[in-house]
Amino acid sequence: MSQASNMKANFGCFIVIFVCVCYASAEDESVDCTKPPRFIPLHMCCPVPDLSTEELMEQCAEFAKPPPPPPIGRGGPAKFEHSHHHPPHMRGLHPHPCLIECIFNKTEVIGENGEPDVDKFSALLDTTVKDNEEMAAIMEEAFEECTEKASELKAKIAEKISKYPEFAEKMANHRMQAACSPFGAMLMTCVNMETFKNCPASVWNDSTECNTVRDFINECKRV
Ligand SMILES: *[C@@H]1O[C@H](CO)[C@@H](O)[C@H](O)[C@H]1NC(C)=O
Ligand SMILES: *[C@@H]1O[C@H](CO)[C@@H](O)[C@H](O)[C@H]1NC(C)=O
């Protein structure tokens, strides 16, 4: 509640009563990075489109692991309806690594050499985000930026491995345990996050809560 009233104070800059409060907590200083705002699903603020088409979901069904089916109506229309309804985690920031990897494999967004391909991502956007060109452009830009970040990260890891051989061993062990590489999911998370930050005004949910969350994400770098 105090967050909400804080933001209201900011918006009410021109209201005389709050002038002092306003100057005291103007713009960036109003973001308290020690206090994360109440969690709200990010797609409620910015509906970043889901890139998994029904066809892809079918091709990757073995990795989708939907939540256990409800006890009633098994096999009936309820199940059919369910398959049209993406599980909430697909829309969130923690997608299943194997599902994402499968989708990126099938669409060749991540090539056989493991390298991301922006042209293939763009083609995927053409089929999934065709109703919003602005959103598609922002997502493509996000992909390019995230690909760059990923290659920087890879370079850092390579450097670390050359310095600390035991780190390489740890990584290899981890890879043995993990069914899929986290790379695809990390890339997708990054793309969703960058898109959220640059969400087109035409679809942005201009609510106090959403603005607070975006300010927090923009201003408070994770360490
Ligand atoms: C994706 O492709 C890579 C390389 O071809 C392969 O190693 C991996 O198992 C594939 N992942 C999925 C989930 O299909
Ligand atoms: C906008 O965000 C608020 C939360 O701040 C939420 O209650 C509301 O449902 C959202 N509106 C839409 C259209 O998603």
Keywords:
223 residues, mainly alpha, Recoverin, domain 1, 60% helix, 0% strand, disordered N terminus, binds 2-acetamido-2-deoxy-beta-D-glucopyranose
Q: Which architecture per CATH?
A: Orthogonal Bundle
Mean pLDDT: 77
Please give the radius of gyration in angstroms. 21 Å
Name the hetero compounds present. 2-acetamido-2-deoxy-beta-D-glucopyranose
User: What general outline do the C-alpha atoms trace?
Assistant: globular
CATH hierarchy, class: Mainly Alpha
Give the structure's gist in a few sentences.
This protein is mostly helical and 223 residues long. 60% of the residues lie in helices and 0% in strands.
Characterization of this structure:
With 223 residues, the protein is mostly helical. It is built from 13 helices and no strands. Helix 8 packs across helix 12, helix 9 (118-128) runs antiparallel to helix 10 and helix 10 crosses helix 12. It is globular. The model is unreliable at 1-27 and 73-93 (pLDDT under 50). This is Odorant-binding protein. Keywords: Secreted, Signal. Residues 1-26 form the signal peptide. Residues 68-87 are annotated as: Disordered.
Layout of secondary structure:
Blueprint: H1 2-11, H2 19-24, H3 42-45, H4 54-59, H5 61-64, H6 77-84, H7 88-91, H8 97-106, H9 118-128, H10 133-163, H11 165-177, H12 183-197, H13 208-219
Helix pairs in contact: 8-12, 9-10, 10-11, 10-12
The chain binds 2-acetamido-2-deoxy-beta-D-glucopyranose (2 copies).
One 2-acetamido-2-deoxy-beta-D-glucopyranose binds next to α8.
